[in-house]
Amino acid sequence: MSTYAMCVRYDGVEVDDSYCDALTRPEPVHEFCAGRECQPRWETSSWSECSRTCGEGYQFRIVRCWKMLSPGFDSSVYSDLCEAAEAVRPEERKTCRNPACGPQWEMSEWSECPAKCGERSVVTRDIRCSEDEKLCDPSTRPVGEKNCTGPPCDRQWTVSDWGPCSGSCGQGRTIRHVYCKTSDGRVVPESQCQMETKPLAIHPCGDKNCPAHWLAQDWERCNTTCGRGVKRRLVLCMELANGKPQTRSGPECGLARKPPEESTCFERPCFKWYTSPWSECTKTCGVGVRMRDVKCYQGTDIVRGCDPLVKPVGRQACDLQPCPTEPPDDSCQDQPGTNCALAIRVNLCGHWYYSKACCRSCRTPTPRPGPAAP
């Protein structure tokens, strides 16, 4: 509220200021006053960059409920207050369309490194064009293979105690667990240990002396992670002599009766994630975002069967060198119903509420009065 002085006669009629003594004129007074309770309102941030650099994407913004709790004290409050006041919540997401995406290269994830410890090998990935192969620029084709190094040579086999014998001589089996471990005791995939030196996990048992017979170890993992592949196992001719297992030549067990060492196997259908190259950062300085398309393919068809737990990220922050100055906010507008002219006259732009409520007015420099004319 504001008070100001005017010159009046004894009968209360306003007259010209020259009839009153200018030296005794009271200064204008501007004070905050509490009117009726202010209704909560929705406020929004500016829209984010489009989530895709080509084609159809999304823009996002933050929507919060605000309320003036007391004169000069504006605060974010629970959304329930705006909803109870039946204020229409602004949209938090909208579609944005950039020029259509042209043909672009898409890549699968890198394969596992097949190298043994201390050795080098090559990992590969599949490269495909999002449209006909001839339409993608061959000069920008991503590399499909790169060198890789095997795990450290501190992996070694460890075994558990033998379990009980499952039957009589020739039929009995005793089993133990075999693990591949690092020097600090972590269990890692068996492929990181030397398969040639893997201890047997199944031994014959029964009587002290048992004739030679075929003994099959457990099947190894299928040699593919999807689709049809091959699995193998070790089959040995073994006997017990004075309670100790001994390996014999195949003819002593009868080669015709040898169990198969190889079999076909089928893992889940071959769904595979593919990603497009990363877009440019949405900012040229500071912290921005870069995006890429993430698609699931089965053969040439886009499907939904890929494992969501290993889905590649489609969006990540890009932290560039600091911006020299913050760019002005072009969406900055004065809030309706706020007396911004008064706020500027009484120097309230430094107050955090009025700097926000009178954003545009406070940003515009106020012209200073020039020197008085002589």
The sequence of SSEs as H and E is: EEEEEEHEEEEEEEEEEEEEEEEEEEEHHH
Rg: 39 Å
Instruction: Enumerate the strands of the largest sheet in spatial order, edge to edge or round the barrel.
Output: 10-8-22-24-25
Given the structure, what is the number of helices? 4
- Structurally, how many domains make up the residues? 4
Cα end-to-end separation? 36 Å
GO molecular function: metalloendopeptidase activity
Main location: secreted
GO biological process, one term: extracellular matrix organization
Pfam family, one: TSP1_ADAMTS
Give structural notes.
This protein folds into four domains: 2-98, no CATH class; 105-149, no CATH class; 156-266, no CATH class; 272-319, Single Sheet (TSP-1 type 1 repeat), CATH 2.20.100. Helices cover 6% and strands 30% of the residues. The chain has 374 residues and is mainly β. A hairpin with a 5-residue loop joins strand 14 (178-181) and strand 15 (187-188). The chain is elongated, with a radius of gyration of 39 Å. It has four helices and 26 strands. The model is unreliable at 368-374 (pLDDT under 50). The strands form ten sheets. It has a five-stranded antiparallel β-sheet, with no helix packed on it.
Blueprint (SSEs and pairs):
Blueprint: E1 2-3, E2 29-30, E3 41-44, E4 56-60, E5 63-70, E6 73-77, H1 79-84, E7 93-97, E8 105-108, E9 120-124, E10 127-129, E11 145-149, E12 156-159, E13 173-175, E14 178-181, E15 187-188, E16 202-204, E17 210-216, E18 228-232, E19 235-241, E20 244-248, E21 262-266, E22 272-275, E23 287-291, E24 294-298, E25 301-302, E26 315-319, H2 340-345, H3 352-357, H4 359-363
Antiparallel strand pairs: 1-2, 3-5, 4-7, 5-6, 8-10, 8-22, 9-11, 12-14, 13-16, 14-15, 17-19, 18-21, 19-20, 22-24, 23-26, 24-25
